[in-house]
Amino acid sequence: MGQFTFPNFGFAQVKNIVETINEFYGEQVHEGFYPHFNDVALRQNILSAFPALDAVGQNVKELINSGYSALFFENIHLQSFSKADRNKLLYTISLSLGYPTPTDPRLGKLLWDVKPRALPVGHFATFSEHSDRTELHTDTQYYSQPEEYFLLYVVRSARCGGGKSLLCSARQIKKCLLKTAEGQEAFEVLSIFQFPFCIPTTFTETRDAKTIETITAPIFSNKPFIRFRYDTLEKGF
Q1: Packing angle of the helix pair 39-49, 83-95 (nearest 10 deg)
Q2: How confident is the model over 84-128, as pLDDT tens digits?
Q3: Distance of alpha carbon 192 from alpha carbon 58, whole angstroms
Q4: 226: three-class secondary structure by DSSP
Q5: Which residues of the chain have pLDDT under 70?
Q6: Domain chopping of the chain, boundaries
């Protein structure tokens, strides 16, 4: 885990970035954004408007490949912008790493608010839809190909004594398992067996609580290195 300072968005850079996104999306600039049909050109234009972002993206990839499990970027200084422009700048940061993938197959939004929601009876909620404790998990473990990176931006810190995050290195988990015969056997099972992951209702094709959708995959694999979430596994079984 490492802490880093993010390069400041200057006024001229923000102006160029916002104008570039508005030009590509026109009147259809929604809060969540959707993949642009010409995302290659969009990304090239964005990185040209803020060259320091390209270096940030490359550094993040190198650090993750060198063994970091999480990176904290402090002082991004987005509080002074409107919500619409802040979302555009967050989208811009994600473009430095590649091409963002939709949060769900139905709506295809690229940005997703983490906040409690009023949910219907029987709805299998994902962690970002309630304010209860979030157990240790990997993101989008119910996708056939989970993303290599995901970005969380804190709009407002928890004011109830919560909001504390526990991070765990999957590499260290594997290293510990392989120290004993029992651990080696467990690792082999977790690497071979196809485990059923139930997809939270919001991210299913139908978004119908009565329809259960699952995928099967091992816990450990080459890509992703690990996928895990207790409640999706429990409901999958």
Answers
A1: 100
A2: 888 888 888 889 888 988 877 677 788 888 887 887 777 877 777
A3: 33
A4: strand
A5: 1, 27-32, 105
A6: 1-112, 115-154+165-237
